[in-house]
Write a structure and sequence with these properties.
This protein is α+β, with helices and mostly antiparallel strands. The chain folds into 3 domains: about 80 residues, Immunoglobulin-like; about 90 residues, no CATH class; about 70 residues, no CATH class. It has 4 helices and 14 strands. It has a 5-stranded mixed beta sheet, with no helix packed on it. The protein is flat and about 75 Å long. The chain starts with a strand and ends in a 10-residue tail after the last helix.
Length: about 280
Amino acid sequence: MSDLGEVVPLAVTVRDTAGAPMNAETVSLTIIRPDLSIAAIDILNPPAQTGRYTAEFIPTGQPGLYTYRWHTTGPDLVHEGAFHVEPPGAISILSLAQAKTLLGMANDDRYDEDIAGTSRAATRLAEKVRREKILRTPMVETRDLGRTYVRGVALTWRPVIALTAVDRLADGDVVVETLTPPLVAVDERGIVTAGSPTALWGRCRFRYVAGYLVIPDEFREATGYILQALWANRRGAGGRPRVGGQDTGGDDSADTRSVPGRALDLLGAGEPRVLVG
């Protein structure tokens, strides 16, 4: 797991039939970004260390899954892999220090990246149970309201802390008008209204901030229980991550049935949602 702007090291070792490192006649490295565009990386050949080819890639602007492919000739070799880049602001309710303490690994920094990823997954799972945003998060959603004027629009994510703006869009999502408070407003139910009864129609983009200004203690405690359960399910002996599992960050598909009962109680599963931050 990497962040935008963070160096991602990539490497491959070429060996002969006896298993000894050897230099290839040609070597190439291609990276496919999340939007399927391709980056070709220049590789030094011969390398500084016999048979050991390395590269550094810095992802910018595109969070998501990146795949890469090493290809050599003389000998022929294909080696493929992938890495995930987190979007900006991908954080957890718990700090890394808090998460490590909960896992009994406060003095062990070997698995910090894995713990951070699992903590983010725990946060997303807590939000899934709550069916709302807990972390303060900037949101953007585009809605087609049709050709008739509407009196109010219910935003998808709640609780809503603030409405930033409403953009009215033309073809190609070109902004033709931007309405900002007090011309538009949002109430405690997350419903957007406008001062003019003819303002909300057509294709509109809503920009707002959802989440809690002050995160309740019970949500933090519940996230800790979820973190411990996720870590216990993915670890090997001694709390080490299982081979082949480097990060659970992004595991939004985790079934809420795996959430400990105590965490469900603390998150108020099944109770009416509180819609104010």
